[in-house]
Amino acid sequence: MHVHALKEKASNSLSKENIKQAILNICAFNPTPNDLDGLSDCECFPVAMPSGDLKWVNSKEDFAIIDRREYGEMFFAKIKILDFSLEEVHSMKPFLLGLRLDDLFMSGRVEEQTKVEGGFVDERLTNDLRRKAYAICR
Fold first, then answer.
1. Which pTM was predicted?
2. Helix, strand or coil for residue 127?
3. In the beta sheet, which residues pair with residue 81?
4. Looking at 85-89, 99-103, 111-115, which range is the least confident one?
5. Cβ-count burial of 106 within 10 angstroms (0-12 exposed, 13-18 middle, 19+ buried)?
6. For site-directed labelling of 57, which of 41, 111, 130, 134 has its Cα 20 to 30 A away?
């Protein structure tokens, strides 16, 4: 019933709030991929384009889902991003995973690299950190 309502709202009204509420209603039932089979062509995702325009797309379109605040700040207006807040994305996670969109989450697409220049190894500090970490993990 909620899946049908989402299809109806997506085809008739492109109100972000109405569609968001329909998605949250579906999430309340922890949908499986089988439950969401008919939604692959449903244009229920508002995507912010790098140009600043908002485009409604389906789950087959290529876009990124921001699931960490720093990624949203870093990639805003540079790539196509799902136009829901971080909190909304977390609330909609069962829906997004049910549509098999887990590979669109930024945390899975971004590879972070750390580089230290001019550092040195201090055995005393390293051992102290290991001791404290061991105590915390016990």
1. 0.77
2. helix
3. 48, 64
4. 111-115
5. buried
6. 111
Residue keyed to tokens 């389906």? 58
Q: Cα–Cα distance between 97 and 31 in angstroms, integer? A: 9
As separate numbers, helices (DSSP H) first and strands (DSSP E) second, the chain gives 7, 3
Q: What phi and psi values does residue 102 have, to the nearest 5 degrees?
A: -60, -25
Give the long-range contacts of residues 34-40, CB within 8 A, separation 24 or more.
35/3, 35/98, 36/3, 36/95, 36/98, 36/99, 38/3, 38/7, 39/3, 39/6, 39/7, 39/99, 40/99
The C-alpha atoms of residue 46 and residue 119 are separated, in whole angstroms, by: 45
Contacts of 98 (CB under 8 A, 6+ apart): 31, 32, 33, 35, 36
Nearest to 41 by CA among 81, 102, 97, 99: 99
